[in-house]
Amino acid sequence: xxxxxxxxxxxxxxxxxxxxxxxxxxxxxxxxxxxxxxxxxxxxxxxxxxxxxxxxxxxxxxxxxxxxxxxxxxxxxxxxxxxxxxxxxxxxxxxxxxxxxxxxxxxxxxxxxxxxxxxxxxxxxxxxxxxxxxxxxxxxxxxxxxxxxxxxxxxxxxxxxxxxxxxxxxxxxxxxxxxxxxxxxxxxxxxxxxxxxxxxxxxxxxxxxxxxxxxxxxxxxxxxxxxxxxxx
Amino acid sequence: xxxxxxxxxxxxxxxxxxxxxxxxxxxxxxxxxxxxxxxxxxxxxxxxxxxxxxxxxxxxxxxxxxxxxxxxxxxxxxxxxxxxxxxxxxxxxxxxxxxxxxxxxxxxxxxxxxxxxxxxxxxxxxxxxxxxxxxxxxxxxxxxxxxxxxxxxxxxxxxxxxxxxxxxxxxxxxxxxxxxxxxxxxxxxxxxxxxxxxxxxxxxxxxxxxxxxxxxxxxxxxxx
Lengths: 232, 224
Prior knowledge:
The structure holds 2 protein chains of 2 kinds.
Chain A: H1 6-27, H2 41-68, H3 71-103, H4 112-125, H5 127-132, H6 137-169, H7 183-231
Chain B: H1 2-19, H2 22-41, H3 48-69, H4 72-77, H5 79-85, H6 90-119, H7 131-155, H8 160-171, H9 173-183, H10 196-218
Helix pairs in contact in B: 1-6, 2-3, 2-6, 3-6, 3-7, 3-8, 3-9, 6-7, 6-10, 7-8, 7-9, 7-10, 9-10
């Protein structure tokens, strides 16, 4: 059901990611200011963008679940948020490495994007305890969707608030990484972003298939157990 | 709908007046936290960003108590079934619960903020008038809207007292940022308000978004 087109998708992911890595190491110029460590940017930023996109997608799937009552939308929302949290952990780790290398500290509070990402990450981590503290599957799906929608709306508001707060104490030029990238860097970045998006979609479909299969298996086992008790 | 909301709200306020459960606990909690901050920071008086930070973090932590108790009576005594069987819109229930929380917060702040001025604040509290009440009211609105939603979300889980703080506090970060930043210049000896409009604007935007969002999704909670 969910595994349609998974093989070509996986192949496209491998090709794009390999191209992106090749470009990162052999094509994109060294950053004059930060040197080699700046190349983590091609992993960190696409990962952050894709993770945020996944969170927002989780909210949209949540809306579709509440509209239709179809549990498959809830499963899509759950897996999207699940994958985004895993990517989010990667964002925080690579962000910390980058911060250590270029500013000398593992964590800097005056980088608004990183700080708001941490807040969003902490909020979404509560998705698991909330979801698995509700036993009734129908209610679990409904409540999880409500969480996904509220948190999805929170993401832009939070970014705005943190950005304002930091700009207030540390006036700085807004675009440090985006905006005025030279051509080679921009091309590499765009292909890395495409690769990360494909990776996310592939993993999402794979996890959906696995979750769906295990749900199916559980249902079959239950049915067999019922039949056996009837026979006995 | 407004009528149903006022009836539920009156029930909640009456219950609070009779049992004296949430508001006294929240007030006592804030004063205890001020004492803790006095020792934790080892400071006799605070001003500027430290003062507004301590004030707002304490109020948010007190709000956690109010939010976790918001549906507690219904859950423990089974009154929720009667509420859900009643032929009223869920929006009325949301409005009633959010208003109750809002009024609880106002009641707490009437005691807690002057106490803060007395115990910890260096500059005179009179210098924060009339801006501080406006910031408090806008902040309360955001806390009440999100708090009622979080409370309903957590009410049906196995451990609501665990879910509520984890869910509420990250959601409160924009409120904390705008309220603390707006309050900070008021609590400095030398300066008047600056950038007040920006923070109140952000706070208003947050309030509008979360009131509308909560009204929209509340129907799906507490359905059965």
